[in-house]
Amino acid sequence: VQKEDPRILNANKRYQRFVEANRQAMESCVPEKEKKKCKSFLRHPEIVRAREMVETASKSVNATSDFKATQNLKEAKTLLYNTYDQLKEQEIKEKIHRNEITGRKKTIEGQVAGASPEERVKTWCNHFRTCLAQHQKLKKFGMCNKRTQGYQ
């Protein structure tokens, strides 16, 4: 039996502690992402009906193997795939309506930046001072058009 080098054992223990510390930090700091529930269409009545048609057509092809039975099987499969597509499309439209695809909420447009009402008022005042100063500069250099001349 060969004896292990103590430096290797020490390095393995240190690495193991590093991995464990990393795992603990990850569990405490990184939020767990919610699993998205996917709708299963397997038990949907339209899918069940289309699948039964495919099964019946498949049995017919196995029994007779003529051209008409093969065509019926192809049509039944096409109907099944189209039914799946229609149900998925309906689900996506519902998700779009509920805004679940991105998971983001609607943005608040036009809200002035600032942590408190006082800061928002200051930001708003600074913005309009800047706008007025730019207008004065444009007016000074004769660059105002008819639309901006009314704001003197």
Uncertain segments are 147-152
> What is the terminal-to-terminal distance?
96 Å
Question: Considering DSSP H and I runs of 4 or more, what fraction of the residues is helical?
Answer: 55-70%
DSSP summary, beta strand count: 0
- SSE string, helices as H and strands as E: HHHHH
Task: Explain what you see.
The termini are far apart. It contains five helices and no strands. The longest helix has 32 residues, at 67-98. The chain is mainly α. 3% of the residues are buried.
Describe the protein's topology.
Layout: H1 6-29, H2 45-64, H3 67-98, H4 117-140, H5 146-149
Helix pairs in contact: 2-3
Protein traits:
152 residues; mainly alpha; 68% helix; 0% strand; flat; disordered C terminus
Short description:
By secondary structure, the protein is mainly alpha-helical. Among the domains are: 39-100; 118-149. It has helices at residues 6-29, 45-64, 67-98, 117-140, 146-149.
